[in-house]
Amino acid sequence: MDFDRIKEKLSILADAAKYDVSCSSSGSKRKNTNKGLGDSSGMGICHSYTEDGRCVSLLKILLTNHCIFDCAYCVTRKSNDIKRAAFKVQEVVDLTISFYRRNYIEGLFLSSGIFKDADTTMERLIQVAKKLREEENFNGYIHLKSIPGASDELMREAGLYADRLSVNIEIPTKSGLKLLAPDKNHEDFMKPMKKVKNEIIQYKQESRIIKSTPKYAPAGQSTQMIVGATGESDRDIMYTSNFFYKNYQMRRVYYSGYVPVANDPRLPALGTQVPVLRENRLYQTDWLMRFYGFDVREILNNDYPHLDMEIDPKLSWALRNREHFPVNINRADKSMLLRIPGVGLKSVNKILQARKFRKLNWEHLKKIGIALNRAQYFITCDSRIWEKNDYSSDRLKQIIIQNSASKFRKDTGQLSLFS
Amino acid sequence: MNGFILKYDGSFEGLLCCVFEAYHQKLQILDIQPLDRAADQLFAESLEVNTDVQKASRVLKALQKKTSSQGLLRIKWTFLSELPGMEIQLFRAIRYIFASEKPVDADYSEDSILYLAQTIKKVGREKHRMEAFVRFRLTHDGIYFALIEPDFNVLPIISRHFTSRYADQEWIIYDLKRGFGLHYDKNSTQFIQLDLPENVGISGAPSEYFANEEIAFQELWQAYFNNVNIKSRVNTRLHLQHVPRRYWKYLTEKSSFA
Lengths: 419, 258
Description:
Chain A has 419 residues and is α/β, with parallel strands linked by helices. Chain A has helices at residues 3-15, 89-101, 118-134, 152-161, 174-180, 186-209, 234-248, 276-291, 296-299, 313-320, 334-337, 345-354, 362-368, 372-375, 393-402, and strands spanning 48-49, 55-56, 58-62, 107-111, 141-145, 164-166, 221-227, 252-257, 327-328, 379-380.
């Protein structure tokens, strides 16, 4: 191995892949068989974290950053004057295996610039995965990027080796896509997604009848959207996301605050701050949809097209729907407990368990770990004392903000004039 | 009558024997301490409990009848926390489990049960971290070798994870703090004790011990780690929350090679 050359390529092609948000390595069912290498049957493991705080679980690289497209939001775009490089198939295989054996990673996330055409690129990605599975007996996690426009035949093959497939739709609205990626076609994104969805369904049905049916993309599909590049509303983003969850059985949709990478009049200027808080609120909304039983229209609609940046979306919903509160902790059903601000999934389960033994009071709730600074105004429990909650919603919001130490609240750093 | 402070040999079986004696002799228990950490108290009588495997297994069997396998796991993990004071909490939890008609694994309104739940969360977090933060280095003999120093004694509970994952390579994970390790020889996994030379280091690749290319892979990993960072999003607080400083010296990507 020529380590110097590999190091140079690795630096270029890891750098170019870092804007892909997904680093999940969970949700697959690939057990170590015949004393091979690796296992991805459990939950994923983040082996490290970057200085920006994101998980490093997979060797996430591009096969090459040569690209025939010129999408404005992408560092790898053809018109960008950067160093180009390309890995050989065997080089990626060797890197993955030697990193995995040292317990640096859970597996491989392989994406690529589109260097000749969609099919040639897709085929090369598949070759890497196939070698890993068949020659190296590798059972670690493999995430392959589906190349927009790749043929159905290749998408079928990809799913036989990969745990997860994804197409980044990048721009949440069709009009935004037309503006920033004029060479790309909305349909090209949807086609491989649809194929993979149908194959997943078919393989699942077959495996019910024939046990030996091979696994097809056992960890499903995911996609990613760039946030804040084209002026779309939070409602646009979450409705698109909802569409993918409902119609494509997407496992995850990722939201990626736009990091300015180009001087382009169609885009926010270089140096514009990354909208990390907005991104965080979108993920919270995503969680409410997937795990807390909220319909997206309850949170975002024509009256409320944007999420409140000051408070989380669950609290925001509760303040707009005061008639549902206060909730009695000792009697309410699970779906209502899940709607109390400051009470998470785990706390709900603890409450349900613990109240079988006795009625819960403030002391119990505090110990269980619910965020009383928010929850206290929305609940009653086994206590005579209860928090005054006849404030107006606006007033209540202010009180809660004052009493919470949000990690996002900026310290003003202002000194009092008379101190 | 004054209560007793029980002293035991520090083993799990030893602790179970304390439970046995407490019931057998109807003792009022104030505290349970391992012999090497025990402190004499003025107003309590202390009693040394000998470890007897048969007594321990009787307590264990009784527990199995009263609690789920999950509940038993909680007791074992709490023990592995090695936290001062965990013995008396375990004793109270076990007494509560024995005294209750129905299963009480999830009665978080009882202090000792909540203590167990909170402790296994800490132990579980470190178990998970050790599954993530172990960094193997390849030796001349073809053994993948790693050193760790976890806060809690998690080596016994990460054994299965590494055995099923690295089934085709020989490896050793050694706990420097507690002086024992795990060795997998491609057939089975055993506890071992080693005399380690000082200069084996926690990262880097001294040529006396490690394969020629080992250092090159460590450098590749560092290069990768440095290139996936997005500078305009740096969030040191979050970074430290995920990768506490005390683990840095064991992480190839964070250490300057010794």
